[in-house]
Amino acid sequence: MTKKNGKNSSLARENTIFGKWAGLVALLDRFVLAREEDFFRRVKTAVGMKITDDFGDSTGLSTYDAEIFDCYTNIMQVYRQVVDHHLKEGNVVTTLEVKGIWGGIYELLMSRLMLYEGETEINPIDAEKKGIVAQSVADAFEHMGEVVKEYRGSDIRGEILYDLRKSLLKSELTFDDMEKIFIDITTAFEDNCDEQFYSIYRRALETKLVNLNNLELRQQLSNFNSLLKEEIEILRQIIVVQAMALEKIIWDGGATPEETTFLEDVLGVLRETYQREGQTSGRINRAFMEIALNHKENLGKVTIDAESPEEFAEFYNGETAMPPDLAVIFENFKTTRLEKYKPFAESLANALDERLGDFHKKLATQRAYFAKKTSWQVGQMATECCDAFAEIVNHFEDGKEHLLAQEEKGIIKGVAETVSIKIDSIKDGIGQFAEEASEIIESFSADEVVVCGESFVTERLLEGASGAKVVKEILDEFVATQQEDAEKSWTKREEPLNKKVLAFKRDNLFFELSTFEEILHYSVSRLRESLDVQILEFVVEIDKQYKNLEQILARHGIEKIVPVAHEPFNAKEHEVLMAEVQEGFKKGEIIKTMNSGYRRGEQVITRANVIAAR
What single string gives the DSSP state of each residue in 284-330? Predict the structure, then answer.
């Protein structure tokens, strides 16, 4: 009990000291992270504002977005006015010829209004432009976040933090040294991220301007511009064809006074709209063509001349001075924690060496135990099979005089002698396998365990471990880091034994069992036709032990592979002894099984011998 309490007391003391060390490292890490986070927030704000501001200063095809929408909307509003006027006053149109022409115009305007899908006070193109800007800023933020994430996992940042922790571990760090390290961290952050942030800014600005100034990339604007062109053409057709036809009817006196007044009102509105909006549409399209010719050249000038990396970095370069109270915090940790750390670092390393030594000894014991168990189980399975064969021989010996006096004595003697040979063969195999397996197993505990706990503790401390029960965690972690290598090493060392086990099963035991099946097929089957009672009893005993052999294999996890007729050939489990054409069988189907195969789980030890159709 005293020893156990002593260990617990030591572990608790180590936990306390190590926890204080971990707290110091965590504090410094949090300080570094907070400074970087604040710096990154300033960068994001500056870049986001710059992207938005630079967009406001840009010019190009997007300048005419609002005019396109307004021009198209104005035409739709005129259509609505004409339709409303028709609904209110259109009943005056009664002359057949006038009614036919005007009815066509009215139906056309109604169909265009339905395509328009209603009036809106919001310019969707303007909303789209704002969305492009917002998306550009959001994408830039995301890309900057990736840069920062990459920087935090970079070797240069890791080296700076490593130097900081290493100085702490050696109790040699002064406040001036720590301040210099923090300045180095900020400087490294700027040196590694400034150029990438500038590239992100340029890409965001360029992509945004391309999207804003390229009609093909903005489907909504393209649709409105196409619709605008269609409406101008429709108005032109109305004015040139239908309106002139109606005016000719009026001049010829073919319209009533009421119809004349109505038609002059609506045709005047349509003609005025065509002249006004047609002129606007023409101007917009001419501007498109002119600006599009040197669009790429102008875009390059806008982005390249906007900033240089050095000028861009000035937007977010800030103070690097440390908080004034950090010096007090540092000195407090140095005197109350840091100076008391070293004695316990050695204690942790010793505990780690002890834990690792115990782990390797335990693992070696476990591996040796399971290896012995495996070899014993294989030998036991073979021995039980020998015992089953021995029962057949014993039955023969008991009735030997009578059995050898029968007409079938040649077959009976051959069966008994063959089974006896199998017993001797399996026993010889068991002996040789046991000897070779023992030599392999004895070598499992021959190697000495080499540990390196002190260096691992030092490295682990420099990583800044923290959390409850940290000593136990670091010990468990070290064992875990060793476990995979240990498992691989043991797997390699066990390969010779596994090969011996497989070879014994395949070349000795299962070979004898498989050829025993041949005796059943070709010899015992002939004895079944005998009328002699003792011969039939001998056959019953053979069948009994054959079934017993199957039960022995099943108890040891061995499954027989016995394909049935018409089963598809499987190269993993089946081996073709002969291929022949057989009526009623498709190519690749099994006709007959000559010898069973054996598997253990997913491992096929021997394949079944079959005759397959070709």
Answer: HHHHHHHHHHTHHHHHHHHHHHH--HHHHHTTT----PPPTTHHHHH
Identity of the residue numbered 46: A
Instruction: Judge whether 611 and 578 are in contact, CB under 8 Å.
Output: yes
- Which backbone phi and psi does 612 adopt, to 5 degrees? -120, 155
Long-range contacts of 420-426 (CB under 8 A, 24+ apart): 420/389, 420/393, 422/389, 422/512, 422/515, 422/516, 423/386, 423/389, 423/390, 423/393, 425/508, 425/512, 426/382, 426/385, 426/386, 426/389, 426/508, 426/509, 426/512
What is the C-alpha separation between 27 and 378, in angstroms, rounded? 59
Residue 247, both tokens: 């005016």
Q: From CA 94, how far away is CA 98, in angstroms rounded?
A: 7
SS3 of residue 32 by DSSP = helix
pTM above 0.90, yes or no: no
One-letter amino acid identity for 60? G
161, 175, 225, 489: which is closest to 329 by C-alpha? Answer: 175
Reported as a single tens digit per residue, the pLDDT across 553-588 is: 899 899 988 899 899 998 898 988 888 888 889 888
Rounded to whole angstroms, the Cα distance separating 171 from 165 reads: 10
d(CA 317, CA 402): 110
Three-state DSSP state, 237: helix
- Residues pairing with 604 in the sheet: 599
Worst-scoring range by mean pLDDT, 122-136, 262-276, 466-480, 593-607?
466-480
CA distance to 172, 270, 451, 577, per residue, from 78 (Å): 84, 7, 91, 92
Helix runs in 556-583, H state only: none
Task: Give the C-alpha separation, 596 to 613, whole Å.
Answer: 18
pLDDT-derived band at 450 (thresholds 50, 70, 90) equals very low
Using alpha carbons, list the distances in angstroms from residue 544 to 300, 409, 410, 423: 93, 21, 22, 17
For residue 606, the cross-strand partners are: 598
**Separation between Cα atoms, residue 6 and residue 77, nearest integer Å:** 93
* Statement: residue 449 has pLDDT above 60: no
Q: Tell me, what's the pLDDT at 547?
A: 93
Per-residue pLDDT reduced to its tens digit, 71-100: 888 888 888 888 888 888 888 888 888 888
**Using an 8 Å Cβ cutoff, are 404 and 505 in contact?**
no
Residue with tokens 């011996």: 500
Q: What is the DSSP string of 406-473?
A: STTHHHHHHHHHHHHHHHHHHHHHHHHHHHHHHHHHHGGG-SPP---HHHHHHHHHHHT--STTHHHH
Angle at 548 between CA 546 and CA 550, to 5 degrees: 75
* Residue 597: strand, helix, or coil: strand
CA distance 158 to 510: 59
Over the stretch 211-242, which tens digit does the pLDDT of each residue have? 666 544 455 566 667 777 888 888 888 888 88
The identity of residue 332, as a single letter, is N
Say whether pLDDT at 120 is over 50: yes
Using DSSP's 3-state secondary structure scheme, residue 578 falls into strand
